[in-house]
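Encode chain A's predicted structure.
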Amino acid sequence: MTFGRKESGAGKPVEARPETARVAGFDPTTPAYREKSMAVFDRLISTVDAGVLLNLPVSEGRQFIQAEIRKILRQDRIVLSAAAEAFMLDEICDEMLGYGPLERLLARDDIADIMVNGPDAVFIETGGRIEKTDIRFRDERHLMNVCQRIVSRVGRRIDDSSPICDARLADGSRVNVIAPPLSLGGATLTIRRFRRDRITLDDLVRWDSLPAPAATVLSALARAGCNILISGGTGSGKTTLLNCLTAFIDAGERIITCEDTAELQLQQPHVISLETRPPNLEGEGTVSMRDLVKNCLRMRPDRIIVGEVRGPEAFDLLQAMNTGHDGSMGTLHANSPREALSRLESMVTMGYPSLRTATIREMITSAVDVIVQASRLRDGSRKIVDVALVAGMDDGRVLLERLFRLDHDARGESGAQRKGRYVRGVGLTGMSREKAVYHGLDARIDAALDQL
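Encoded structure for chain A:
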């Protein structure tokens, strides 16, 4: 998930899609059009050799299919308006070469999430807001066929015996499918889009996700080798921020990333990307996040980057941070830096229930330097709302000292929240200052904090 407002037109140009036909008054949901479309599709399937299409580039495959469709229209004397024919050409090409109706959405760069709640309910998130589209599947069977096509690319299946499946599209987008009997209303498909273009901290500043001085502070902390946890809710932009901060890791360091679904786009020359593996059809062969993080320690990493900490692997990550792997980073789900500490403590307990609470908190205090809180606000924007330093322990409690935070002004008479302002806290202290001093970055951080 990305911060701020996405700008249309980023990445590769988006091909004009057949939605333009609907502007001209064409409705592809009419029974007359659907009958003609299915007749052409059935004829095409019976006459085209699928092996020929597999050996063609996508662009040539589309040209080949469109030529065959026009031939069928002439032979069978099927009369269509120009708008209906244009729609049919794209619709059938998408069906045979891609993921059917979803192709029109996947071609757009301004969509963050695609949510299919059934054949007639397709939603997207764009610009931080969710809206319903006019995209439709023919029926539940059509939707299930598209879901099967997606998960089969990663050797999985979706059926009554295996109704939940996670997969990944070729561009890296994350896919989740849940089917009946677990999903009572029919198959549900969710796609978290993968941006083609790399987002930077400068982009987040331009999108007003944080001010320039705050970006300077975070980049310096990452460069100084501080151990950073990024906390936030679902869709708050945690992975995007993690991706941005990894850009400031020195090119000479050996970096190992561990993710459930590979999303990070590190540009350094010495990067090893690891990905978890779900069980096979027999329920065997699982490789968990904990397996990956534990194995990292045998691979001589300089830094370990964990896409999302969600279980017992938290213990192994803390161990890594405590044994010389400075500059390691990860994300977790929590609504505040204090809650992030509680969540981290709970996750360690999941794997090591016999560990004393005091011992776990001592591990956290000596391992984690900075907690960055990302949040998705009510207007759909995503911002960095709090940055706290782990400053030690007092009476068995982990101490947090705020570096800076977003302070919202009072609400207006209408109840709408006004734009907040960033307020600095105590300044750089503890291990974070020691690391910044060692790398000669303390003065830069202090100057940036003074500008907030």
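The first strand starts at residue 113 and ends at 118.
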